[in-house]
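Sequence in, structure out. Go.
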Amino acid sequence: MLAVPEMGLQGLYIGSSPERSPVPSPPGSPRTQESCGIAPLTPSQSPKPEARAPQPASFSVVVAIDFGTTSSGYAFSFASDPEAIHMMRKWEGGDPGVAHQKTPTCLLLTPEGAFHSFGYTARDYYHDLDPEEARDWLYFEKFKMKIHSATDLTLKTQLEAVNGKMMPALEVFAHALRFFREHALQELREQSPSLPEKDTVRWVLTVPAIWKQPAKQFMREAAYLAGLVSRENAEQLLIALEPEAASVYCRKLRLHQLLDLSGRAPGGGRLGERRSIDSSFRQAREQLRRSRHSRTFLVESGVGELWAEMQAGDRYVVADCGGGTVDLTVHQLEQPHGTLKELYKASGGPYGAVGVDLAFEQLLCRIFGEDFIATFKRQRPAAWVDLTIAFEARKRTAGPHRAGALNISLPFSFIDFYRKQRGHNVETALRRSSVNFVKWSSQGMLRMSCEAMNELFQPTVSGIIQHIEALLARPEVQGVKLLFLVGGFAESAVLQHAVQAALGARGLRVVVPHDVGLTILKGAVLFGQAPGVVRVRRSPLTYGVGVLNRFVPGRHPPEKLLVRDGRRWCTDVFERFVAAEQSVALGEEVRRSYCPARPGQRRVLINLYCCAAEDARFITDPGVRKCGALSLELEPADCGQDTAGAPPGRREIRAAMQFGDTEIKVTAVDVSTNRSVRASIDFLSN
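Output:
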């Protein structure tokens, strides 16, 4: 076979094997604008993947940043005591009655685009600006979702501030990460003055598991720009998948740190009103007491009390319900070391808490008019932020058994702006609207019934439940015993009640950690200390390259036939590296060898393709798309030198790709010199 030449014919090394040909694909085949000739050495039949233990990086402390849609924070632990997790300092400012171990994901830049503040400080400062002055400042909130929803994400993608001005997304994310870097390092210096400055921190960034490779690479690029790590020390930065981090943390918990939603007290709306897991594990507990050695080993291996009571092979689901997305992952517990095996690829969708915010905005549009709301957001951006803060405070108090209406404050500027724009007051607008479950309060507030508030939750909550039910119906997921509900949105009593009502009847135990909003952050720290805890993952997509194979009549379509020098070739054949849903172990490698086509060639570029199907045959099949490029950079000293006895220009470059980590990774070596070759995969160049 031959990797499809995404290039011209000139300079390609022609091997002697009749199975290979330098002939390029016919016009119309997918190709890149800048690429180099290659002569593959690996046969079509892929060698069995080989496992290689990852090389541990040197670090003294792990700092994890949970970069969320609505709120963010950091935590850390020292390598000398990895399970002693230090939460970041409480943030100044904030809302009454809300814990401040995280800060809102809000960024404020000056009118010139310089960094001003982040979090509560940014939100409060923007709130206090004069309305006219605020229109010149760049305020960003909930901007993480833009990366998830972008279909053509690149390093040049732009983000829109509240005032409508545009800013490079990479700079926006880098500003935020730089803020956390400076805060975390300052706190580390105060706690451990003797801590070395250089290469002492392993950084961990959390991302949704359903994010595709371009979004993960984007976060890494933002981290480089923010100065978290350098490209030369890329291994000092780990990307953690949010539900995986939650799973890693939950496996450390003891029974008194977990709450079983089936034990909800009638009318309860707070987490503390629910009982912890009890009777279902008592029998296992007694067995473990009679087997002291087994219990001690598991605990010493880093497994918590709940997991000590589970059997090898037990399965569970983690539902990470965040501000922007819901991520579902299924793990199987492997004993005796407590490692985790993914049973089904991560799934989910944009069913986070912001869906409730959008439902509230749509409600306002029904009452006051879509055109007015759009104008108000554009001309009074700070006041709009005030209104969303007021709604957020009431949203947190919503519960399925709550009695009494909820009052939502309208900013004075909203009331005044509406009167000037429409010629009548907001009370008149409410009377004229078709919305009869929202009234006007004499205190200048919107008065919403509890039923109306719960209705705002329904589309988002229903989407979450449907995703969970669809997952549980998969044959790979049969035998699940537990569902862990984690993430900031999992604090909602409305969501908890709905999930328990829908899934409790089928015998699934729905469990919530006490510190549910910090589960991912703490788990990310533990993951940074021992990233090998998730031993096996499922590939979300099929990945491979295009190749030329010998044409076989009856098996290959006639339109794929290419004849050159009397040889018949089938073009655009999709050679698979890894299949969708395939289990891939951490450190497992897929190896391919390539040969630079010309003496002195400095770069080898090979297009990568992906699809959701497992059985795609050609890179031109429906659903198959170019998703990235594998780049091999050759050192100048290597380009013109030939190994004794080797044909001129024939230099074997062996690439090893890993699909079992949170990111797709590649390394390469020049076989003739045994020297490493700079190798990378770019998913943002499309």
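Check: The chain is about 30% helix and 30% strand. The domain at 541-638+648-680 is CATH 2.60.34.10 (Substrate Binding Domain Of DNAk; Chain A, domain 1).
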